[in-house]
């Protein structure tokens, strides 16, 4: 049940046709993990908390660096050297005291990923390297939970929503791990925009509203100010998701 303060806080989204109290209560019951608390993860976690997602698990083993501050909006100059996960949790509790936040100051890997994700309903990709993304993708397929992938570089961004059994997984779309690029160039507004799309996808999946980006890769070119959509399909021979039954779209 929503308390009086929550009803006032979420009034403008409760007013949305088809959303209402039922949608808000679904958000309150939802458990979402944000893996990576950088340029994507910071605004994603911020808007998930503001929307009233009831439980957020924040996972990042890094510490704040000065070069983070052009895009990682949860941190301040005085935070340099402090663990991102704990700082982000503090800031989100200030943003919305009705949201429960768990902070894990660790990096996700093959050994811990299933334990980290075993108690959540949905995962948001805030990662900055492909190896970890593939680890999380495989774990989400095994656990049967949605994974909202995003990647950014400079003025470019991409988003797709992976729902096991309903469309391709990340390995279907990207067959091999791309080469990593240390110090990826990026303008801060790019991850902010892409993260907002991730949050919209998460809210849609949680509430059952709208059509998610399953089987579709949304590509943003900020220099041309243009969105393009690429249809992507499941690979029947995918080593990660081929054994998952087709649940339709």
How would you describe this structure to a colleague?
The longest helix has 19 residues. The chain starts with a helix and ends in an 18-residue tail after the last strand. It has an 8-stranded mixed beta sheet, with helices on both faces. The relative contact order is 0.15. It has one domain: Rossmann fold (3-Layer(aba) Sandwich), CATH 3.40.50. It contains 9 helices and 8 strands. The protein has 249 residues and is α/β, with parallel strands linked by helices.
Instruction: Please write the CATH class name.
Output: Alpha Beta
How many strands in all?
Answer: 8
Distance between the termini: 31 Å
Classify the secondary structure makeup into a structural class. alpha/beta
The helix fraction, in percent, is 25-40%
What would CATH call the homologous superfamily? NAD(P)-binding Rossmann-like Domain
As a percent range, the share of strand residues is: 15-25%
Q: List the helices and strands in order.
A: HHHEHEHEHEHEEHHEE
Question: From the 3D coordinates, which CATH architecture would you assign?
Answer: 3-Layer(aba) Sandwich
The number of domains is: 1
Largest sheet: 8 strands, mixed
Rg result: 17 Å
Total helical segments = 9
Shape: globular
- Average of per-residue pLDDT values: 96
Main sheet: strand order: 3-2-1-4-5-6-7-8
Which spans have pLDDT < 50 for at least 5 consecutive residues?
none
Kindly report the CATH topology: Rossmann fold
């Amino acid at each position: 049940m929503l308390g009086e303060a929550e009803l006032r806080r979420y009034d403008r989204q409760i007013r949305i046709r088809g959303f209402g109290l039922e949608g808000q209560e679904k958000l309150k019951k939802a458990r979402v993990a944000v893996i990576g608390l950088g340029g994507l993860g910071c605004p994603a976690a911020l808007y998930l908390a503001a929307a009233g997602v009831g439980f957020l698990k924040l996972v990042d083993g890094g510490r704040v660096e000065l070069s983070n501050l052009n895009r990682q909006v949860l941190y301040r100059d005085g935070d340099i050297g402090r663990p991102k996960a704990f700082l982000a949790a503090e800031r989100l509790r200030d943003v919305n005291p009705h949201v429960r936040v768990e902070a894990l100051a660790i990096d996700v890997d093959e050994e811990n990923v299933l334990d980290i994700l075993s108690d959540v309903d949905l995962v948001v990709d805030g990662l900055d390297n492909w190896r970890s993304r593939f680890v999380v993708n495989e774990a989400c397929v095994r656990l049967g939970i949605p994974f909202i992938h995003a990647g950014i570089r400079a003025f470019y961004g991409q988003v797709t929503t992976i729902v096991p059994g309903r469309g391709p997984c990340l390995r279907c779309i990207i067959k091999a791990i791309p080469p990593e690029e240390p110090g990826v160039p990026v303008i801060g507004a790019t991850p902010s925009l892409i993260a907002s799309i991730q949050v919209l996808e998460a809210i849609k999946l949680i509430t059952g509203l709208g059509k998610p980006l399953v089987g579709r890769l949304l590509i943003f070119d900020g220099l041309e100010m243009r969105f393009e959509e690429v249809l992507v399909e499941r690979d029947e021979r995918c080593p990660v998701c081929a054994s998952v039954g087709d649940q339709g779209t």
